[in-house]
Specification:
Blueprint (H helix, E strand, L loop, with lengths): L1 H24 L7 H15 L5 H12 L2 H22 L2 H12 L5 H16 L2 H19 L3 H18 L4 H10 L3 H26 L14 H15 L4 H18 L5 H14 L1 H19 L2 H10 L5 H19 L2 H19 L3 H16 L6 H10 L11 H15 L8
Helix pairs in contact: 1-2, 1-14, 1-15, 2-14, 3-14, 4-12, 4-13, 4-14, 5-7, 5-11, 6-7, 6-8, 6-10, 7-8, 7-19, 8-19, 9-17, 9-18, 10-18, 10-20, 11-12, 12-13, 15-16, 16-17, 16-18, 17-18, 18-20
């Protein structure tokens, strides 16, 4: 017990230093999140006694530079380059004007949420959806006077709709493969759980948008400047790799920007450099979070939680709650919902088989709870990416993340009230 709590203590140091002090100061900019991660990381390396210091640093470094982590960093770099070059050549303004022209003010929130849901289902990734829509959401917010944090949170929430349901989503594939069920069966069960939540949030956004009005005298839409975003969306929906999509988008912004005089070739290159530099803090946070969480895993923190949550299970409802708790906590510790499902998938299967939980329901619980928790982690890739692209503090998005909260609640209700009956 004591060893397990010590293993988890670096996470407590981060939470206390960042969240608690920020709440006391009533300002989430008082303590930079990078400093909080640095302090927690130094503490994690120091408290991991029993092995040489160099080996502890190696463990931390392995976590900071895993294949998954480096892929994420490459996406951040390319996203920064695309977002900034698009902004400099006027693509964001043109796309915002197009959205304001096509959508009445009352439907801006609901329309953006539907767009995020559709794109995320098509591309199977929340990060890809956030990269495509966040700059547009931030631009619309500035034009209409809507709170930027709320507008960006609409995109983040909608992005988890597809992350949870898409047939090509990593989380869906891993959840079904670990539980031994078909993608279509898991989708059917999952839809019973999350569709009511999505519908409720859509209605909420329609109601919230009643008093929103589009700005008058919207400038004429420069269609050529909208092309980079249209090509990025179409390529992503067609299933192209997100890194290839962002590379094509960045090249397109250069071709169009140079041809219409928005900048010359050196201006384009400088814009790429500024976009990459702007992602620096995001990349540092990602690497430090990976290192910190790897030390927690190495010291047995995740194994401790798994043991703690499964030792008192004695019925189907308890088994489902244990699976939900397991994947939720491991997601908090890994900040990656796919990795969380991989980590506990085998254990979840054993628990489900032992207590007769339907494997389709178990796969849905794994996927839904991991997405719900991932949607609230301020150091997770999705919120970090959205905050970075919109120049916001990650914490500022949390009060507006309605959809992740909604699917977490509906999934909990599905467990407590044995819903849907056919699969419970």
């Amino acid at each position: 017990m004591r060893k397990g709590l010590i293993a988890l203590s670096p996470l407590a140091v981060f939470i206390l230093l960042y969240l608690v002090t920020s709440i006391i100061a009533r300002d989430f900019y008082k303590v930079p999140i990078t400093v909080a991660f640095l302090a927690a990381s130094v503490y994690a390396v120091i408290m991991s006694g029993g092995i040489p210091l160099r080996e502890r640093i190696d463990i931390y470094s392995r976590g900071a530079a895993t294949g998954q982590m480096m892929l994420m960093i490459w996406i951040f770099i390319l996203a920064g380059a695309f977002a900034h070059t698009a902004k400099m050549m006027g693509a964001i303004d043109a796309t915002v004007n197009l959205a304001l022209t096509l959508l009445p003010g009352q439907m801006l929130l609901a329309g953006l949420f539907l767009a995020a849901c559709f794109i995320s289902v098509s591309v199977g990734t929340s990060v890809g959806t956030i990269v495509a829509l966040t700059p547009i959401a931030a631009g619309v917010a500035e034009q209409t006077g809507i709170d930027v944090s709320m507008m960006v949170a609409v995109v983040v929430g909608g992005s988890f709709f597809g992350d949870n349901l898409s047939f090509i989503s990593d989380t869906t594939i891993v959840a079904t493969s670990t539980q031994g069920c078909r993608l279509s069966d898991k989708f059917r069960v999952n839809s019973f759980i999350v569709f009511p939540a999505a519908l409720a949030i859509l209605v909420l956004y329609i109601i919230m948008g009643v008093n929103i009005s589009s700005p008058q005298n919207v400038p004429e839409v420069a269609i050529m400047k909208v092309l980079p975003y249209l090509i990025v969306l179409i390529s992503a929906i067609a299933g192209m790799n997100v890194m290839a999509v962002l590379t094509i988008g960045t090249i397109l912004t250069g071709v169009i920007g140079i041809s219409d005089g928005s900048f010359d070739i050196f201006g384009w290159i400088q814009a790429i450099g500024q976009g990459i530099t702007g992602m620096g803090e995001l990349i540092i946070i990602t690497m430090m979070a990976g290192g910190l969480l790897e030390i927690i895993r190495h010291n047995g923190g995740i194994d401790f939680i798994i043991h703690l949550l499964t030792r008192h299970v004695n019925n189907k409802r308890g088994a489902e709650l244990a699976v939900a708790g397991l994947v939720s906590f491991v997601d908090l510790c890994t900040a990656n919902n796919t990795v969380a499902i991989i980590t506990v998938g085998g254990i979840a299967k054993q628990i489900a088989d032992r207590f007769g939980v339907d494997n389709r329901k178990c796969a849905s619980i794994l996927d839904t709870f991991s997405c719900a928790v991932q949607g609230f982690i301020p150091y997770g890739a999705q919120i970090l990416m959205a905050a970075g692209l919109a120049s916001l503090n990650p914490i500022s998005l949390l009060p507006y993340l309605y959809y992740p909260l909604a699917i977490g609640l509906t999934a909990l209700i599905a467990i407590l009230f044995r819903y849907p009956k056919r699969y419970s």
